[in-house]
Write a structure and sequence with these properties.
Elements: H1 8-20, H2 25-49, H3 54-66, H4 68-80, H5 91-101, H6 109-122, H7 132-142, H8 151-164, H9 166-178, H10 185-195, H11 198-212, H12 217-231, H13 235-251
Helix pairs in contact: 1-2, 2-4, 4-5, 4-6, 7-8, 7-11, 8-11, 9-13, 11-12, 11-13
């Protein structure tokens, strides 16, 4: 399950830092994935080795929290190395950002190197090769909308909105599909399967993007059907998700 260990303020911080450093959109999504996976793995690793007392665990949480900004920047470092079109994120830039967002701590080159290795080791030396943005680009190409003016920028903005409003978005979807918040284990599993389905998310964003292009209803239905066949998700689920996202985008 994604988004288990990455709160919205961290997502927002990653967006702002990547914008400030003029990094590509893929980098922020990779960094979010890495931070989420790292924190999940790191907490579990520490929990298994810690004394199982409330005071001890509280101290562990405080320690990890105090280092979270450093780990965030390490995730950005690693993510940046996946983009061959980007310049390397220099240590001096990392230190400059850390001095701005964490004035209480002192950082050195060695600390930056050690943190980057620690994050990479904790995620099993594995990097994500496919982000939700990649899925969106593939789906746009598959339905012939890849070269549509402004579509790329529009879908990136919609994807950013999903990342910043994920809980609200899926809660609305759940209520629309089931008529209520998940109660049974089966209902919860069904929602989890949708939340973790990147192709479903991509298809919903693409369909929502076509709404902003002011296509007629029949054309939108044809696009929705094609997307449903491509990602093997019921057409009404994609349609519902796209409409919820449209309302949220207009409100924003």
């Amino acid at each position: 399950m994604p988004f288990v260990a990455i709160p919205i303020p961290i997502v927002n911080a990653i967006f702002k830092i990547t914008e400030h450093l003029d990094l590509g959109p893929d980098i922020k999504y990779i960094a979010i994935h890495l931070y989420d996976k790292f924190m999940c793995n790191y907490f579990w690793e520490v929990y298994r080795n810690a004394d199982q007392t409330e005071n001890s665990w509280s101290q562990v949480c405080k320690t990890i929290s105090s280092q979270s900004k450093l780990y965030l920047m390490s995730c950005l470092q690693l993510a940046n190395k996946m983009d061959s079109h980007c310049n390397n994120l220099r240590i001096s830039q990392i230190l400059s950002i850390l001095r701005c967002i964490d004035k209480k701590s002192e950082y050195t080159h060695n600390i930056i190197f050690s943190s980057e290795y620690k994050v990479f080791r904790t995620v099993g030396f594995k990097m994500p090769f496919c982000t939700p943005l990649n899925c969106i680009e593939i789906l746009l190409a598959a339905i012939g909308l890849k070269d549509t003016p402004n579509m790329q920028e529009l879908t990136i903005n919609l994807l950013d909105l999903v990342y910043l409003q994920r809980e609200k978005l899926y809660s609305h979807l759940q209520c629309l599909i089931q008529g209520h918040i998940a109660r049974t284990q089966q209902e919860k599993r069904n929602l989890m399967s949708l939340e973790s389905n990147v192709l479903f998310l991509g298809a919903s964003i693409v369909l929502c993007g076509t709404f902003f292009l002011c296509v007629d209803s029949e054309t939108a239905k044809v696009i929705a059907l094609k997307l449903s066949q491509l990602v093997d998700i019921k057409i009404h689920d994609i349609w519902d998700m796209a409409n919820i996202l449209l309302i949220m985008a207009i409100q924003e």
